[in-house]
Automatic annotation (TrEMBL):
Gene3D superfamilies: Beta Polymerase, domain 2, cca-adding enzyme, domain 2. Its EC number is 2.7.7.72. It holds the Pfam family HD. Its cofactor is Mg(2+). This is CCA tRNA nucleotidyltransferase. Keywords: Coiled coil, Magnesium, Metal-binding, Nucleotide-binding, Nucleotidyltransferase, Transferase, tRNA processing. The keyword Metal-binding applies. One of its GO terms (molecular function) is CCA tRNA nucleotidyltransferase activity. Residues 394-421 form a coiled coil.
Length: 476
């Protein structure tokens, strides 16, 4: 009881910081005889002391009435969610959503509800996904606030447990995306699933197939950007959700036999993810985290048992990069995200050819050029991929990568490695070879770029001499 009281007091202090929004908004609704409640994740986060700029409200006022009430107070308002009873608005730095009380029904085929307006806060809260998101604060006149918790979401929050207001089977049948949201909240909040929620997800995981790829991808991104993504990923794999949306993850749990020993690729990948997170600078890095988690997904398809008890995964980075691109395309990730994660997976193993520094300057240039603006992330991914428990070997690997970074820095002082270009541009090529614009110019340009990577910057006379020599041997 003492901790509950402290949290409520802390939430009141947090919400007091929003007085410039809550007080006038409460007055506006009360003046017209309407109820207004701060609700959902906004209340949950206020109790946890992590309130953001997005504020969710619910009210007995219908959408057209809400529009009228906000007119003249909000900086802007939108009706894009009006079909679901929601009016959105902006006030200063805050994004606001106000939704009419709802008592929805579902057809069991899609996750879109048949929207029906309700008449009370209690019936609105019982339709929500989890009890920790089913708490509300009534905003009254003069900035008054009343905590409303008919489903005892505070007890669930105190216990760090995700449970559903109604039976989980009903909740998940209404909206199967809630199962994936459960894993996402485990990642974001560090909570655990109530046993009945866990069991319902196991039994109903295949219902996630009703959800669009775009919705799934949005939840996966939120999950991997959470504070505890490994816990969320484990929930996905344990309950069968991952098998429906990202089957390459549980596939990494390779069987280990007594004759052919190898690391558990799944656990290794989770360790690499955590170590990559530890190397982040500032905000969570979506690209780095996906690359760290998926860098070895090509191993199951390339596993070979070798004579003498060894196991090999030849070219798993090539296979893995293709698998990453295929899966991320299926999940409707943006093209740039697909390209970046795929390229990091493709490049993550290249450093292991560095040995004890045997790479030529040409090889170093190609490493930097192929990574391009992903180089800082590639540095982190390669370092995170060292999970050996042998401290001497781990120190040697990190020291070798230190050496590579020093060589990159030294070359960058002499050359602009971030913009490796041929020493002659297209116009100079056409003038020297006396050819018009066309495919031959492109071939000559690529030859000069390869030459630049191999030998570093050339003066103009050298570049022209090399180009003329190449042209004489390759006139077509």
């Amino acid at each position: 009881m003492e901790r509950r009281t402290r949290l409520l007091a802390a939430a009141a202090i947090t919400l007091a910081q929003l007085a410039d929004v809550l007080t006038p908004l409460g007055e506006i609704f009360a003046a017209k005889g309407h109820e207004l409640y701060l609700v959902g994740g906004t209340v949950r986060d206020a109790v946890l002391g992590r309130l953001g700029e997005d504020l969710d409200f619910t009210t007995d006022a219908h959408p057209e009435q809400v529009q009228s009430l906000l007119r003249g107070w909000a900086d802007n308002q939108w009706d894009t969610g009006i079909a679901f009873g929601t009016i959105s608005a902006a006030k200063g730095e805050h994004q606001i959503e106000i939704t009419t009380f709802r008592t929805d029904s579902y057809d069991g085929v899609t996750r879109n509800p048949d929207v029906q307006y309700g008449t009370s806060i209690d019936e609105d809260l019982v339709r929500r996904d989890f009890t920790v998101n089913a708490m509300a604060v009534r905003i009254g006149v003069n900035g008054s606030q009343e905590f409303v918790d008919p489903l005892d979401g505070m007890s669930a929050l105190l216990a760090g447990v995700l449970d559903t207001p109604a039976a989980p089977e009903i909740s998940f049948n209404d909206d199967p995306l809630r199962m994936l949201r459960a894993a996402r909240f485990v990642s974001q909040l560090g909570f655990t699933l109530a046993p009945r929620v866990h069991d319902a997800i196991v039994a109903m995981a295949d219902q996630l197939d009703r959800i669009t790829a775009e919705r799934v991808r949005a939840e996966l991104d939120k999950l991997i950007l959470g504070a505890h993504p490994i816990d969320g990923i484990d929930v996905m794999c344990e309950t069968g959700l991952a098998q429906r949306v990202l089957p390459e993850l549980p596939a990494m749990k390779l069987e280990i036999d007594e004759h052919h020993q190898h690391k558990d690729v799944y656990q290794h990948s989770l360790t690499v993810l955590q170590q990559a997170i530890d190397l982040e600078d500032g905000d969570p890095d979506l690209i780095l985290r996906w690359a760290a988690l998926l860098h070895d997904i090509g191993k199951p398809d390339t596993k070979r048992n070798e004579p003498g008890g060894g196991v090999s995964f030849h070219h798993h980075e090539v296979v893995g990069a293709k698998m990453v691109r295929r899966r991320m395309r299926a999940l409707k990730f943006p093209k740039q995200v697909i390209d970046d994660v795929g390229q990091l997976v493709f490049l993550h193993l290249r450093f292991h050819g560095y040995g004890k520094g045997q790479w030529t300057d040409s090889a170093v240039r190609r490493y930097v050029t192929d990574a391009d603006d992903l180089l800082p992330r590639l540095h982190k991914l390669v370092r995170a991929d060292c999970t050996t428990r042998n401290k001497r070997r781990a120190a040697a690997l990190q020291g070798t990568y230190d050496d590579l970074e020093r060589r990159i820095a030294a070359l960058q002082e002499k050359e602009d490695l971030a913009r490796v270009r041929p020493d002659l541009d297209g116009n100079a090529i056409m003038e020297l070879l006396d050819i018009p614009a066309g495919p031959q110019v492109g071939k000559a340009w690529r030859f000069l770029k390869e030459l630049r990577l191999d030998r570093g910057p050339l003066d103009r006379d050298e570049a022209e001499a090399e180009l003329l020599k190449w042209w004489a041997a390759n006139p077509e």
